[in-house]
Amino acid sequence: MMEMLKPYILAFIPLFVAIDAIATIPVFLSLVHGTSVRQKNSIILDAVVTATVVAIIFIFIGKWVFSLLGVTVPDFQIAGGLLLFVLSVRLLFPGAQKDSFVHTHEQGLGVFPLGTPLITGPAVLTTTLMMMNSFGLIPTLVSLVLNMLFVWLTLVKADVIMKFVGPSGTRAFSKIMYILLAAIAVMMVRHGIIGAFLK
Questions:
Q1: Of 11, 113, 145, 171, which residue is most buried, by most CB within 10 angstroms?
Q2: Are 127 and 14 in contact (CB under 8 A)?
């Protein structure tokens, strides 16, 4: 039983780290400030649907695009790992935040910036494709959907979580997530180097 669940668990964890739903809470609350409960729920639904659809589309066309360009899986592992590492290191520095590009409150914010790139950004797209290469399509899709359900629940209960954890708690949790993301990035680069040069 545990052996059957292993690919799903191993695919779920890196996606959970890359999505980092807790870090999105302060951004989300600032963007939906002053909106009604109905509007807030509509924004959450738009954000989660957009994030999920973008990630799924990338799962199916990403590898095809790379094959057209002549990019191999080890190439993508190295490039993707380096990208994830740079993103995680940047976000670890004081003052760097996931929401650094968010300046205005606008209509359609469930699609942009919440759905993409806040929830499904470069780190999530890269990780998703890597998980598909490592564990297959079904475990990756199941893990992605479960993560998006967690994101939906997190945003619905954002006020409660923020009161319980507080701004300092969300920042601390996010820093731990970014350290784990950096470690995953190093692992991806290592696998890419082994695949490209040592096999």
A1: 11
A2: yes
